[in-house]
Amino acid sequence: xxxxxxxxxxxxxxxxxxxxxxVVLGVMAVSAAMITTTTIGSGFDSIFASTGANTDVSxxxxxxxxxxxxxxxxxxxxxxxxxxxxxxxxxxKSVRGEVSVDGARPVGPDGKVISVQGPPRSGVAWHxxxxxxxxxxxxxxxxxxxxxxxxGLADRGQFTVGEKIDVLTLAPRQSFTIVGIxxxxxxxxxxxxxxxxxxxxxxxxKLMLGASDVYSSVTVTAERGVSRSxxxxxxxxxxxDGYTVRTGDELAAxxxxxxxxxxxxxxxxxxxxxxxxLLVGIFxxxxxxxxxxxxxxxxxxxxxxxxxxxxxxxxSVLVEAAIVGAAASVVGIGLGLGVSVLLTMxxxxxxxxxxxxxxxxxxxxxxxxxxxxxxxxLVAALVPAVRASRVPPVxxxxxSAAEQRSLTRITWLGAVPAALGVAAVVVSLADIGSLRWVAxxxxxxxxxxxxALLTPVLSRSLLPALGRVVGWSMPSKLGNRNxxxxxxxxxxxxxxxxxxxxxxxxxxxxxxxxxxxLSASATRDLGADLVISGDGVAGRAGGQGxxxxxxxxxxxxxxxxxxxxxxxRAVPGVSRAVAQYVDTVRFEWGASPAAAADLSQLSAVxxxxxxxxxxxxVALDSATLSDHGLKVGDMVRLATQxxxxxxxxxxxxxxxxxxxRGPVFNPSDVASLFVSAAPAIGYVxxxxxxxxxxVTRAVSRLVADNPEVSVQDRTQLADDAAGxxxxxETMLYVLLGLSVVIGILxxxxxMALSIVERTRELGLLRAVGMRRSHMVRMVVTESVVMSLFxxxxxxxxxxxxxxxxxxxxxxxxxEIPWVSLAVxxxxxxxxxxxxxxxxxxxxxxxxxxxxxxxx
Amino acid sequence: MTTTAVENTDTxxxxxxxxxxxxxxxxxxxxxxVALDDISVDIRRGRFTAIMGPSGSGKSTLMHALAGLDTVDxxxxxxxxxxLTTLSDKGLADLRRNRVGFVFQQFNxxxxxxxxxxxxxxxxxxxxxxxxxxxDLVVDAVGLADRLTxxxxxxxxxxxxxxxxARALLPKPDVIFADEPTxxxxxxxxxxILRFLRRSxxxxxxxxxxxxxxxxxxxxxxxxxxxxxxxxxxxxxxPDADEVLDTMKTLSEGDS
Lengths: 855, 256
Ligand SMILES: Nc1ncnc2c1ncn2[C@@H]1O[C@H](COP(=O)(O)OP(=O)(O)O)[C@@H](O)[C@H]1O
Ligand SMILES: [Mg+2]
Fold this sequence. Notes:
heterodimer, A: eight-stranded mixed β-sheet, 23 strands, B: alpha/beta, six-stranded mixed β-sheet, 9 helices
């Protein structure tokens, strides 16, 4: 049996290669994900291992405001008095307050802020060449206007000792003289790609923590004979609940974890792609083996007639599948190694992390990837194998044309879930509270399932119509008939395209509607003519970005000097200028965006009506009030980043809008509650008859020295907000583009197999006078009609689901992006053309004589 | 004896097809098989010619050469006034579509097309339409008027061959080539096909070349040429079945 299987394999190399290709891609992505993340991860571990060496125990403030969005939350500073308290702890040899906080943004030589993706841009207090730090040149800062910088920053900005450097911190831009450049005891100039600016301690406290006599953490070293964990427990006992106390090793591990956070995204993207490839791989293999088995019906029936048992026939097909799966997995892992090398190089170049060279290969994971590839192949081959074993021996005598099975059963099987799914979606459109999402999700899943089973029967009615669009000539007609010939095979072939374009259709409808909704809300809710803010900040201040308001890089909130707003108010032609401070707070039920502003003034520019709360009290939006059974006059508990949990009196309510949501504080509370005491947004209203361009120029001059902040008018703000969605949408399309490639592979695969299967027909067509060009047109039509069918089905189903999502989301507009949808259809045609290239060439080359020859 | 069979009673313009000194071998060196060995044959218009010979004698090869389905090593092949040996692939395809009809032993039809669509296939490829009266006449002659919408899988073997005959006849080609058209049929269905071919020649003045190894089938022809080992060995005019059988016998005796 094994020998027969091997022989069969060699005879069908090409076809099996095509089928195995999707498995190769899937395994490649899995192993690349594993190898890359392990390699970079272990690189980070080895870099940060040294950071814990000089710290026995570290104490830092405990953040009460965890946005739940990952990333580094601002930890409340530790008061200097803690240092004195800890000196009395038995076993503590020395205690030192440290300042090391993310958020010192250096301005590069090009006038733009130096940005790093992932690692922090720390501002630290200089303590001399202690612990890890080693001066490379110059000296440490001793005056308030002096800094030392790490080698990583010196490299990125081409800074040398004696030069000036501008740094943005909690305070506006300030200029310093570089007096020293330092590296670390492990010989590197940067820890995993970070940049550091070392100030004198008082300056660091002021700029990085926003207060004097506070530290971001306190480091304790142990006396000889006292273990780190024992000291940690004693320190924790001495300080009580309000602090995070960790040993040096725990600190190093968590710093390395922070550094590696971006690896999760890489892993997710790669594993997502891999899942898609393997899913499609299943279809491809299922299809290939089905066709191969159909072609071999005679042979298999003969085997059965000669007394081979069912098990043996199933076995022979499965052995073939196992060999294909194993080969594909090995190739996939090999390619995965290659991809990892590239990815690691790219990521290192981007982050400047300069990791230890070489790949770390996680063997158990790769074994898993291999097994996965083989199992997927086997599972996919099982159905055709079992079907092969059921071939009755008499079939040996009949022609091998694939038999037509009735579609009645599969149609009923699909119609029921499809109908239920549609019903559930319709129900979700009615106002049934939080059940709406359950109904929608259930409806979409059921609908998809039903659609998959209905695809064969839909192909019967849709393909002829599509074929008429594609072409009328005889070759086109033949191609169209061929596409409709085996509905099940067509359904499997186009399944990838249906899924992919379904996602594309849904996403495009949702994104377009969200953009329309955003632009509409931004213009409706914004009464101001100009907005001063950092990139993307204003668009997120109302929590519309999905998370708490932060800058575009997700961590540092760009701010500007409060005096900018006062100066703007004085610009001729300006009737009103209001500052808004932005931060994140936490209620007992979750995180929320928060603001502080002169609310009476802010109301005027945001088309609201509300009064400014007195210091120590808040105004809350009415949605939050009603959702949590609160009313004006009640007390509400909430945690701010700087002050932690406190009770506030609810002084008033307002209608939340696109730009404002959550608690609004009195501006005088900002310094004690918010991370940054500087405003993040400024609204400027023009006087009647003022020249917008002149005023814009004047206001822009006020923030000209701040590279993170710009002045936008209302349309720019709306576009900016919509732009966030477009970025996400584009990224998704790129990912889906990859799966279209696999969809094309699926079509090529089926077409190639069909052409081999139909050699005799092709020969006949040549004999009765079809030119080569006719043959090409016939095959191209088949391919294009199939991909169009998949695209129409996917876009229609996905678009419908998208509309339902938009309705359930309660967006103000349902926009169907007809132009984009038409473009996607066009791309499907291109995909069909590409898929037809090789098969049509092959069909055109069919030799008439060998095709019509019979034994 | 004679290796040429040129009937000198007619001029060249009365010829539907001819082969002049055609030779073809498969393979090279010691394993080479000479399939056609310097064959010259004229096919007269409006005549039913049968090519006979034992299996492997080169009948199919000769027919393929005459029909422009296959190349030859040397010699010339003509359909009417057109020399096939110099035509491009495209030219040959157009020639097959417009001026030559085929009936093969089996697998004559496209399973995705109805009987009617199969019959009109060559015309459709050429973007021509059949004259309705002529179409009706042909369909009536093969007795398929009530089967036109059926797919090949819904037709019997005999019916399928009749569809193939109708398809070959409809474009009024210079020649219809039929390679053992009754080889896969029972004798009754086979007789129907042969009667139809005979009638096409008699009533519609169609030229037909039929390859067969069946003496009864050959007896329907106006003329029978005999092949042996790639050579033309005998030529009978208006024979009956007994004459054909006798010739076959003589040839195989002479062979042994
Ligand atoms: N494609 C081919 N390759 C090699 N030899 C061939 C091929 N086709 C035919 N032959 C050989 O050429 C000779 C004539 O074949 P053919 O014309 O098919 O004979 P017939 O139709 O009279 O049975 C035979 O010996 C046959 O084996
Ligand atoms: Mg033959």
